[in-house]
Amino acid sequence: MKTALRLEELGFFLFSIFLFSQLPFPWWYFPVLFLVPDLGMLGYLVGPGIGAAIYNLVHHRLLALLYYVLGMLLASPALALAGVITFAHSSLDRLFGYGLKYPDSFTNTHLGRIGRDARP
Hints:
Distance between the termini: 17 Å
Largest sheet: 3 strands, antiparallel
Strand order of the largest sheet: 1-2-3
Shape: globular
Structural class: mainly alpha
Number of strands: 3
């Protein structure tokens, strides 16, 4: 099952590359903007609860899809780009086992524990 879920995430990531190719931006925007959603980790400087809330907000794929669809409907390529980048980043994160965070600890995710807290 774990392999099937990872393949699904890979498919989502590859689909986001396709969606990006339909936008009017040069290809180099994708890798340059790809890590922007990780700025959400700065919320952990305040504390784990706030950090988890901000991190989850900027890594939520439903919001990413909402940004993309609104960008397309409103003819706003920048908003669609924000959606594609967020969707791509979050999908690749999940492919590697990094999920949405619980408020108790950065290492406690909806996909299981990560880092030193992960069980072998």
